[in-house]
Amino acid sequence: MKVLIADDEPNILLSLEFLMRKNGYEVFIARNGSEALSILKEHVPDLVLLDIMMPDIDGYELCEQIRSRAEFKMTKIIFISAKSRKIDIEKGIETGADLYVTKPFSTRDLIKKIQELMGEQTSTF
Amino acid sequence: MSAWLLGFISLAFLGLLFFIASRVENRSLFRTRIADSPYTYALSLGVYCTAWTFYGSVGRAATAGPDFLAIYIGPMLTIPLWWLVMRKIIRISKLQNISTLADFISSRYGKDPWLAGFIALSCLIGIIPYISLQIKAISDSFSIIALPSIHSVSGSWTSGIPWPSLLFTIIIGAFSIRYGTRTLESNKPRSGMMTAIAVESVVKLVAFMVVGIIVLWGLHSGPGSLFSEASAKLPDYQRLVTFPEKGYMDWFFLCLISGLAIFLLPRQFQVTVIENKAESHLRTAMWVFPLYLFLINLFVVPVAISGRLLFADQPVNPDTYLLSLTQLTGWDWLSLIAYLGGFSAASAMMVISSIALSTMLSNNVIIPLILRFGRYTADKDTRYTGLLINSRRFSIMLILFLAYLYFLYFTQDTPLVSIGITSFIAVSQFAPALFIGLYWKGANRVGAYLGIAVGLLIWFYSLILPVLLAKGHFLWSAEAWHAGQNIAPYSLIAIPGFNHISVVIFWSLLLNIFFFVIGSLIFKPSQMEHSQATLYVHAFRYSTSYENTVQWGGTAAFPDVKSLLIRFLGNRRTEDVLDRYARRNNLDWKARPNLDSRAIAYAERLLAETIGPASARIMVASVVKDVEIGIKEVVDILKESQEVIELNKALTLKSEQLSKASNELKAANERLKQYGELKDEFLYTVTHELRTPITSIRAMAELVYDHPEMDDLEKERFLSTIIQECERLTRLISNVLDLEKFESGNMELSLAKDDVKTIIEESINASRQLAETKSVKLHFDVRSGLPEVWIDRDRITQVLINLLSNAIKFVKPKEGEVRVTAYRLDQYLTVNVSDNGPGISKEEQQRLFDKFYQAKNQTRKKPEGSGLGLAICKSIIEMHQGRIWVESEEGHGARFVFTLPLNDAYTLPQPKQSAI
Q: What's the longest Cα–Cα distance across chain B?
């Protein structure tokens, strides 16, 4: 299973990368929107973890692009953002995300939600 | 000096007065500059000083000592009351179109025409002897100067009919007619005449003082030697120069009646009230007039004593000392000056008195008689305009003629002072009716009649009757007033310890007031009286809304009122005034066959200007088809209009205040809303910024905890990141707190004079570590000799470190360069922090210093940082009275600049040194 993680905060990337790796994912990392796009040209991830506020292309736009392309039909998208207002969350779901998780998040909850979403029982160990 | 020459000079002097009066009437410039001056008004009040002052005071001082002064002290004592009482009288007179004293009193008591006529005739009887006194003075002085031989030989200075004085009387009458009856409106100020009167006041004052000075230093060697000579030679010297030990009551009564006379003498009422052009002129008069009285009395006693000394053995009448002394000098011109001074005093009094009395006689006696008994009702087309003027002119001549007759038959041997006092006591009988009526609403017509009648009866009984009974023996001539005491009527009322005059004043005024009050209490006032009483007593309160006063309840046909007005005002003026009223009230007479009560009141006031209020009332009543409305309605209307005005004012004020308040509220609301939005945005942004480090901390802590198998290197990395993120949190929180302090004004700088160069060096050293991790070069470029400035060292360091770390953050690693320069420019110390980074777009430059400027509706993140740093920098620099800005072009680096004022260029917020 492939996961793409896009966030501009290196420390968050670090922890998410560790988390997903431990859960058996093949992890791709993007520090901004354009990096994410270039990765998406070569890989079709099963899951994308998207930050919204990034320096060049923001998360909403990325999400829309992914949803507009047929090859990512099966790809699940989760927003992980510090934007916590109701309006932000609704907008995230409207653009085609499957889940919206607000920062700060618990890695334990997050992985549980990911496992539910991906429909597989993966033991944390 | 020959009689012909003196006669010619007298005529020339009168000609000069004519000339002055006509210049003023014809020249508008002259008129406003001089005639409308408050000093002209104040000087014209000097008409109080008549020939009695000019000659009589000296006579009195030579025989009885300083009690002549009471006549001037009395009026001076009333001066403080003028602003209160005199101004009230003036205000009422102007509002009610009053033109004489008789009008004034009768208007107060319901505009009663009988009362007005009664007062007019009383004044006439009281004043005619007084006018005759002036004729006597002119005649005597003429004889002394022109016919000294007769004078010195016989001691009696008239023989046969004194033709010169008759001629002068006629010319003075002509002057009064020419300049006193120019208009139909008898209450309009007469500028030409008043200027001439003011000139005469100056002439008599100057004349008296010139003569006084020459007598003192020419005939004697100054006041010192005069008085020492007098004390040696005159047996009664002490009595002449000191106030008597006894007889305070006599002084009191003399002061009292002269204090009343200044209000009540018809000529004083004329000059003070009717000829007043502005209430403010009264202020000038209130100091000029007392000063005038003081100056004109300055030389009375020296002249009197000089006369006593130099004419010790000669039968010279003390009343003529002033003139006789000038003759001793042998200088004709000096005698002439003295003569013209006396002539001025006498003629001014005659002019004003004759005008005042003629208006009374005409408006309150002759016209009412003609209207009542003449053909007025029969012939509606009769015009009265000519009659009105002519009756006044006729009255002037009649009065002067009567005065002349009195002079021929009664005045000849009487001392000047006693005639004056007699007149004073007569007019003071109007005092209760006038003054009490001004302040007590209960005073009424019957009381006024009773009081005045009783007072005048006593006056006549004790002062006039003795003269008639024993012609030639009169009060106050030394031996005559003993004779007066023996006359039967007088003994009835005598009081031990009072002299004759005091007794008369005491009884007449006491009984006058008594009957006035009793009459007022017993009888009921009419409605008309009641409403007039209210208007008088509350003159100041109602004066603004007086225009709208209504005292008529019915209506009148327009043609009736118009023909009434035409009869008294003439065609042209009637058209004028009706037009003016129509224009002002925006109405068309043709469309309104009937006049409402307001228009009727207007017509009445117009008529009152011409024929006096009492007659006007009768005339208007003849065309109004209804009853008068009562006092309640009048006062209600007054109150209503006043309340409406006040309410209007209050409402306007309130609505202005309201709209102002609502605008303020709107603005405040807007500010609050903006502030609220900002606050929301700020809070949201702050929490957002807090979330990022907390997210890392939480995630990593959980991962370390959940994954004990994690290798040590990884664990260490996670833990150090956690510590780093905690520091970031702390920084963020302290930044937020700082900013809050700046914004709430709680931030205080601890200022000290400091060297910026060392601060820059320290800041660069502090940033060096950060720069080295990115291999960024730091340059410091400062010219020597930078002045010290008042700054908060820690805060400026904070700014510099913030700018440096921003710069280091944005430049590319390895090739990045950051340069700090500082120099003095004008009154400021300028510090630049420049980099060769990516630069900042124009749009961003504008919002760069806003806190969290990127937050609003932006989803793209700006490079890391709290988002508060530059906002804090801006606050700090602005608290130092400096400026901070950025200059940049995209792709070409950025330069952050801030300035700090040198200490003499601005006032410090919290100076450490107090100013010397």
A: 157
